[in-house]
Amino acid sequence: MLEHIDLKQSVPKEEYKRRLEPLQERLYDLQGAVFRARVPVAIVFEGWAAAGKASTLNVLAERLDPRGFRVVPVTPPRTLERAYPWLWRFWLKIPAYGQIVVYDTSWYRRVLIDRITEEVSRRQWDDAYQDILDFESQLTADGAIVLKFWLHISKKEQARRFKKLRAKKLTAWQVSEEDDAQHKAYKQYLEAVEDMLARTEAPQAAWTIVPATDRYFTRLKVMETIVQALEFRLGSQVAAPDTAPSAPAPELNAETRPRAPAQSPEPAGAATDRPSPVPADVGAQGLAPADVTAAAPEEEAPHA
User: Measured between alpha carbons, how far is residue 242 from residues 23, 26, 29, 265, 274 in Å?
Assistant: First the structure.
């Protein structure tokens, strides 16, 4: 599957800048529609170390109201979490009604990192596929939108990015021992990724594979996919955009599921006449203030 992905796809910087702002503005409007419709949204970011997850997430969050948006960075389970069924800790972090939650890696750790490092037995990671399907099915049955992205780069590109990060003291820390282990076992991880994509694909929670060699292409592909999915789901509940963005390049949407067009939002706190999509008293309505995590610099983030 992944060997057929064209990793050379790219977008010129000027075109990227021209198309990004309308997408960010449209996503801001859609965030308001999500809140009013009380639709929970779960966005999963998986991919190779240094594929651009954090920097893409940064661009995604840049213009959203943090009161209705939350980032969940997933780490290895702690002692207390190991005392419960493995998905317990993720049930505690599902999006509230009307909230958008982004997972910087996710429950898929079980069938990727934990599988390769043998943190869990073969039977445990094999059973996890059905656990995941059931988990996502329950979320979508309750009305949630589940979007899943795999950011894909080659082993050669990953090595190049690691070298660039290590060349500077301020970014060298971003390459962890776990990242190095993944690079050395790239072939094994590739096999695990292929299994994951094949065994957890579902109509209600489909994967979008994103060629991530070019960061501009990656960001536009992710933003367009999210905007189209939300527009498709919310339909008439979404106000028509003020300005339609330029038509996406055909190749940018080659692997995106058929959905709907894309458009525009404003940054929270920016000088604008447009009101915040999330009411000021949102805390009283059940949504806790978001704890958006800071991402690494735009071009340097390894887990971006």
Answer: 12, 9, 10, 10, 11
**3-state DSSP percent of the chain in helix, strand and coil, to 5:** 50, 10, 40
pLDDT in tens, 23-76: 999 999 999 999 999 999 999 999 999 999 999 999 999 999 999 999 999 999
pLDDT of residue 127: 98
Question: Any idea what the Cα angle at residue 28 is, between residues 209 and 143, rounded to 5°?
Answer: 65
E-assigned strands of 32-178?
Answer: 41-47, 69-73, 100-104, 145-152
Contact between 65 and 100 (Cβ < 8 Å): no
pLDDT digit string (tens) for 175-193? 999 999 999 999 999 999 9
Structural domains in the chain, sorted by start: 2-261 (3.40.50.300)
Residue 151's closest CA among 247, 217, 228? 217
Pair of tokens at residue 109:
């750790």
